[in-house]
Amino acid sequence: MKILVTGAAGFIGFYVSKSLLERGHTVVGLDNLNDYYDVDLKYGRLGVLGIPREQAEVFGQMAGSATFETFSFIRLPLEDREGLQRFFKAEGFEVVCHLAAQAGVRYSLENPEAYIDSNIVGFLNILECCRHHHIQHLVYASSSSVYGANTKVPFETSDTVDHPVSLYAATKKSNELMAHTYSHLYGFPTTGLRFFTVYGPWGRPDMAMFLFTEAILKGNPIKVFNHGNLERDFTYIDDITEGVVRVIEKPVEARIQSGELYKVYNIGNNQSVKLLDFIEAIEQTLGKKAEKQMLPMQPGDVEKTWANVDDLIRDYGYQPNTPIREGVQAFVTWYREYYGV
Predict the structure, then answer these.
(1) Does the keyword Membrane apply (predicted)?
(2) What pLDDT digit, counting tens, does each position of 127-145 carry?
(3) Domains plus CATH for the chain?
C-alpha cells in the first residue's frame, strides 16, 4: 500500500514508518519538525530513515530516502489546509496513519493555542483531505488521557470519557468525535488508537523514562509527583508499533460491509506499574540510585492508567509482551550510545 504517516519524525511515527517500510509498503512521511523538544532528535530519527537533515529542513519539498527506496519525506504543517490538499492530490494515498499532534499534558497549560492549531484545526484538515481524496482507511492517534477523572480500572473503550482533566485530553476526545462524524457522513473507516505511556529508544525527552535517566546519570534529583503514588500502563515502543501496523494492514472491507466504520481501541501493555517500581528498574539498570524530590499532584495529571486491550487482541491478535525491565534496559542502552554517556 501507499501510506501517509504524519508525525514521521516523532517517536511513534518514526517506528511505524520504519516497520511499514521493512514490510514492503511505500511510505510518505510528513512532519512540521517543531521545536517542542530537541529538534536534533527528530532529525536523528529521519537520518535513520535515510533523509538528510539539509533536505528535511526545507518546507514543502519532497525528499527521497537514501536508505529506503520506497520512503520520501515532506516538511509541512497540518495547519496549511491548501498545501495539504495539493499534497494529497499529488500523492494518491490509500491509507493515512495520522500520528502528528502537539503532545504533552503539562505543556497544554502553558501554550493552549498550540493544541487547538495542531490537534483540532490540523485534524480537521486531515479529515477533509481523507474525504476529498478517497482515502480507504484513516488510522489516528488518540490517548489514554481521554479517560481523565475515571477511577474504574482497567480502562475500557466502553467507559464514558466526558471528564478530561487537561486541554490535551480534550483535544484527543474531540478528535474521536470528529472522526465519528466523518465516518458517519462520508462513509470511510476511521480507527482511533488510545496510546498508553509509550517508552523506549528514541523516546521523547519530556517523558518520564527520558527525564529520570538523564537526571540520575547527571546526579540531579528527579521529580516524583503525587509523592510517588502514581501508576502507569507503561508500553514498550515495539509493542505499540506492532499494534499500529496490524491495524493499518488489516483489510477494512468487512467493516464497510457491516457498517462498522468508526472504531476506537486501547493500545497498551495491559497492566499497571507503580511509578516507584518503574524508577527502581531504572536505578538497577543504571547501577545508580536516584535522589527523589517528592512533589504534590500536578494539574492535568491522573493517578492511574491501565488499558484493557481485549478488543485489540480479539480483532488483530495484538499481544504486548515486553517486560518492563527489558524495555528499560533497551532504552538505557540506546541513551548511553546516543549521548555518549
Answers:
(1) no
(2) 999 999 999 999 999 999 9
(3) 2-196+236-270+306-321 (3.40.50.720)
